[in-house]
Each structure stands twice: as C-alpha cells, then as structure tokens.
Amino acid sequence: MKIEHREVIAAPVDEVWALCSDPVGLTRFTGSHMQIVAQEPDREPALDSRYRVLMQVGGATIGGSVIVTEYTEPRELAWATYGGVTHRFRLRLRPVGGGTSLTLRVSYDAPGLLGAVADLAAYPKVFSVLKDMVEHIKTEAEGEIGAAPTKSVPRRITDEVEYLTTLTKAGIIAPMRPDRLVRIGFAARNWGLSPASLIAIGEARHGDRIAIIDDQGALTYAEADRQSTSIAAGLRMIGVSEGDAVALLARNHRGFVLAMSAVAKAGADVLLLNTGFSANQIAEVCRREQPSAIIYDSEFAELVSDATANRRAILADGASTDLEPEPTTLAALAAAYPNSSPPSPGHTSKITILTSGTTGTPKGAARGAISGGGSIPTLEAPAALLDRIPLKTGMRVGLAAPAFHAWGLSNLLLGLGLGCTFVCVRKFDPEQWLAAIAEHDVQALAVVPVMLQRMLELPGDVRQRYDTSSLTVVAASGSALPGDLSDRWMNEFGDNLYNLYGSTEVANATIATPEDMRRAPGTAGKPTRGTTVKLLDENNSEVPQGEVGRIFVGNSQLFDGYSGGGDKQRRNGLMATGDVGRFDAAGRLFVVGRDDDMIVSGGENVFPKEVEDTISRHPAVADVAAIGVDDEKFGQRLRAFVVLRDGQQTTADELKALVKSQLAGYKVPRDIDFIDELPRNATGKVLRRELQSR
Questions:
Q1: Does the residue 203 lie in any domain?
Q2: Neighbours of 651 (CB within 10 A)
Q3: What CATH number should be reported for the domain holding residue 665?
C-alpha cells in the first residue's frame, strides 16, 4: 500500500523543517494514533538514527523498528524498517512561491492475498493519520494566517457517505465477485490512484468491454491492461527508472492511454505536453522538467527533435519517421515483452499538466489521477462532477477535448473509472465528429466551447445528415461560453449542455446545468459539492452580491504549486483563479473576464468579455475577441476583432451601435477589425498577444 499527501504551507522551508525534522517530535501532530520512540535517546536525528514506530489501526498495532535512510537539511527525512511490518516513510520539503511544498509518503507491505485485502481495510485510517499530521504542521507553521477551513470529523464522514452514494448511482461502485475484488485490491495497492490502476480495475470488472475506439479500431480493457503492462516492462528495460518523468506528446488515441498507464506501472511520472506548443516551448519545458524519455506521435517528430537529444524517444502511434535511427514504438515494446511485468513500484505516478499559457514557457502543475490535490483519496472530485453531470457506467463517450488538458484528462480518467467506451478522433473536424456521434451512438461528448461553435457553423443541411439523438450529455470547459452559444446549441441539439468552470490549478469550481443556462445564459453555474467559491475585493473582503470581485476557490483538488517554483495567490485556504466574476441572486456565477485583461479607459474599468458577448449575439458574427490598446487621451481603449459567418455582412458602425444599445458608452470599441480567423491555441483560448501585434 502506498499513500501520499501533499500540502503547500505559507511559511519558509527552514521554519517548516524545524517543526518536523525530529521523528519523535512528529508525534505531537498525530496524537495517540502514532508512537515514535528514539532507540538512541541521546543522539540527535541524523542518518542511521534508529526509532520504534507504532500505529494503531482498528484494534491492531502495526509498525516496528526503523532506521533513518535519508536526512538532508532542510529538505528530506526518510526511514525504513529493519524489524517488524515492512514500511517506509518519507518527508520532503521544497520551496514554492511564497512558501513550502510538504510531501509525506508512507508505504507498507502485507504479504499475500489477505495482505492486499488488509491493505485496503487499513488505508482509510493510515491516510487519515497522515493527512491530519500534514494539516497540523501547516496550522502550526502558518498560525491563523492562510489556514484553510477545516471540516469536523462528523461532517467529513457525512460528506464521504454522500460522495459514495453519488458514485454508486453512477455505477463506479457496485457489488462484485470476491476474486475481482482481490484483483482490484492488488491494482490499488500496486499503483494507487493512477491511470494504471483504472485500466487494471476495468480489466477486472469488465475485461471484454471496449475501452477505446479510434482510427485503429477497437481496444478492450483487457487488451489495454495487457499491452500497457508489457510496455511498462519495456520502459524499465530501456532505462526508465522509478520516479523518473516521461513526457507525452500525443493526440487522443489508444497510444495516449496506453502510454499513461504504462508509465504509471513503471513507477514513473507523466509530463503532458501540449500539441500546440512550439519546438522552443517543448525544449524549454523538457530542460526544466528533465524527463528521461519522450513518447510522441510521429507528426511531432520535428517539434521534439531538440528535446529528444540524449533522451529515449518512443513513438506513440507507430508511424514511420525520417529520423535516424528510427525510434522504437509502443507497439514494438509491447511485442518485445509480451509476458513480462515490471516490479511493483514504490512510487505512485503523478501527472504534470502544463498551463495553457499563450506565451513564454508553460508552467507545470502536478496532480494525482482523479482527486489531484493534497486531500487524496477523498471521493469529492469524481462525485462533484457526477453530482451535476449525469454520466453513467458503460456510456459511450466522445473525447473531443484534448486529453493533455486538465478538462480532457479529467473526463478520460473519470470515464475509465466508469468503464466507459471512448470514441476518439485525432484532429477535431466538426463534420467528422457529427459522423462519429451518429456511427457509434455516442451518448456523452467532452468538448471545449470553440468546438461547439464550429459544429453550429456547419450548414444546416450538413448537420441534418447525422443522427445525434443519442447525445444526452455535452460537457464543455476550458474557456468561457461566448454570448448566446448555450441557447443556440440547445435549440439545435436539445437541452444536454453542461458548462464547467475551473482551471488547471483549482480543478472544477462551478458547473452550469442546462436549466441554469436556460434561465441565465452565459452563467458558469453554481459551486460543485465540496467546493467554496468567494469573490474578494482588493482588501480580501467579500464583495456584495451582484458586484464584481476576484474569484477564489477552495476544495480538495487545489494543486500543490508549480513544478518549477511559484504558486497561485492564496487567501485563507482559497486559491485565486486569475478571473473576476459576479454572483446573481440565485447564487450562479458569471465570469466577467481575466483579472489581467481588464483595461482602464478614462478612469472606468472595462472587461473585454462582456463586450465580446454582446457582439457575438449579432447574427452575422461567427467569432470575436476584444483587447485593450494604448490611447493618448483615455489611457486605454478597446479594439475588437470580428470573424463573420460565411455569406454574412455587417459594418463596424452597426456593431458599435449594438454595443452602445446594451452597455455603457465607454465600453464601445473604438476600432473594429474584420479578420478571417482568430488565433487560438490547442484548447481553444484566443492568443491575445498575437492580436496585439496586428
């Protein structure tokens, strides 16, 4: 069994180290649940120091004699047993922006089948002790400042029971044969909450069910589990070590899923690269994150050429390249080690998602498989989605949103947990996706908003060729829904649209149901279960209902800080998203725009998004973006870029009049330029800096 808990503490590394560098001193953060006694009382903590460690689990006491295996001030403390139940403990401190990232990791092994079952039974208790230890260290290090709101034990129990009920209704939790339960226990024990365990659990529960349909055909859960195990053995044989990072640059197809699962089975971490990155961005990210290998689609061979120097290169899709020597492939690794399995790793794989910044080097945000943040393994994250979005076990899901992005990844991992069948198309084409929905009776579709726009822009006769009546859920996230897009979509395809607001750093914050968007078009919905959303002013006080404030989010899924250092602004356990918004009288959130997009024109605050939304409602407008530009008289003014629908016409004066009729006069763009297409990144976000250069 392996348990890991991570927390960002608003205090310097040296101060946190002083609190937790003495093993005996850790007991004041665990109460009576753990006892640590020095076997050499007169000796200061150091390498090779010996202690007796005991933990109460139910009516049993586990533990034994340990020796300190690493002691590096002020960063690392680790011990391992040399007598008693085998277990390992590691405390790691790393500086992040404005504070310290603290990671605690515990693993122990009970032998045999009964041991696997015992591990599952003990897991909640051990995790609770570990989590409480971290929270108590955090509270003492920070004092009252920055302390996160904590739930009482009864409230935690009530919440988890409610989460369990939600997951049961969705079909994630269901009765099963004892032998399958044991196999699931082994998967969780070996790989924790990771893509590897989700695939293996899928094999144990429904091995014959199709997991992925892509351009290569169908792949079952059993085949995916078997192939990823062989690939993992191959990765270890070519030099990928436990704890390494492996970069992955691939589109949505079986190679992406197999690679993620194989890397986790090998005990390595996954670094997800954006398919829209430049060669320079990829090279810079790899220099910072130092992956030992890169798995990539052949179409990106030129982009990764600099990054693959002195690194192992593996093709995800198996297509040939012009590279010399020709890289190995995932399929070749699977074929070379058909009956091999890597040793059970001592490290649970983490997934580093890169922010979708439009310039510079993207930042990395590390997460676990589903819950992601420091409060793993609470059921909050999957339950929060399933509480609002009616996904069910065994559904056919169209994964149009890129899986390297937090939104696409969360759908992929949640869907694997539900035993869904994924339909994948490598590159987004609106008509091709309509055809795929019709051909495979897709029931749920994960998209970014610009994909919905492109489907709606297809001629009516093209849309009517395809039967999309199987769609019951269309889940959108990644950027704000522009204008009246929600109404236009639901008028055409039915009331099946769900809009999620969140970010790589905070995961999901709010979800708008079809009913929410019918009543309040443009809303991001209400906070998800277990999530707190507050709007704060410049003095960190909550703003009144209806007024605009900075959006702060608190839940179990907050990330732990960027891999290269730095963090998002935090206030009393809540994290800034970088956006501003307002609540309506019904408690629905409206995202007004990015905090740093706001311009001041003649002393008035203007957010481009509300202008964009107004212009987008004109029937001739297909797409629009507004930016702030310098102005000698007013300081700044708005400039809008508009894309017209095919065959439609309008004028700048007509659009200005539209804005003036609905918004204040100072929000009317001084300039409106008509262009063929807005520059966007792979997740659909407008590249505003490119517009600035026009």
A1: no
A2: 11
A3: 3.30.300.30
User: By C-alpha distance, which of 367, 436, 440 is closest to 407?
Assistant: 367
CA-CA distance, 534 to 553, in Å (whole number)?
7
181's tokens: 């339960």
**Of the candidates 143, 160, 189, which is a domain's last residue?**
143
Return the DSSP state at 480.
P
Question: Is 227 within a domain?
Answer: no
In a domain, 191, yes or no: no
d(CA 653, CA 521): 26
Whichever domain contains 100, its CATH number is 3.30.530.20
Determine which of 73-77, 120-124, 304-308 has the lowest per-residue pLDDT on average: 120-124
DSSP string, 195-258: HHHHHHHHHHHHTTSEEEEETTEEEEHHHHHHHHHHHHHHHHHTTPPTT-EEEEE--SSHHHHH
- Looking at the domain assignment, is residue 625 inside a domain? yes
Boundaries of domain holding 133: 2-143
How many domains are contained in the chain? 2
Whether the per-residue pLDDT at 154 is higher than 60: the answer is no
Q: Which of 94, 114, 143 is the last residue of a domain?
A: 143
In order of 303, 381, 592, 658, the CA distances from 667 in angstroms are: 41, 39, 14, 11
Give the pLDDT confidence of 365-385 residue by residue, as tens digits. Answer: 766 544 444 444 567 778 888
Q: What pairs with residue 329 in β-bridges?
A: 315
Mean of per-residue pLDDT scores for the chain: 85
Model pLDDT for residues 383-415, shown as the tens digit of each residue: 888 889 999 999 999 999 999 988 999 999 999
- Name, in order, each residue with C-beta under 8 angstroms of 297's C-beta and a sequence gap of 6 or more: 249, 250, 251, 255, 315, 316, 317, 319
461 to each of 456, 489, 570, how far by Cα in Å? 11, 16, 50
- Beta-carbon-side half-sphere exposure of residue 207 (alpha carbons within 13 Å): 11
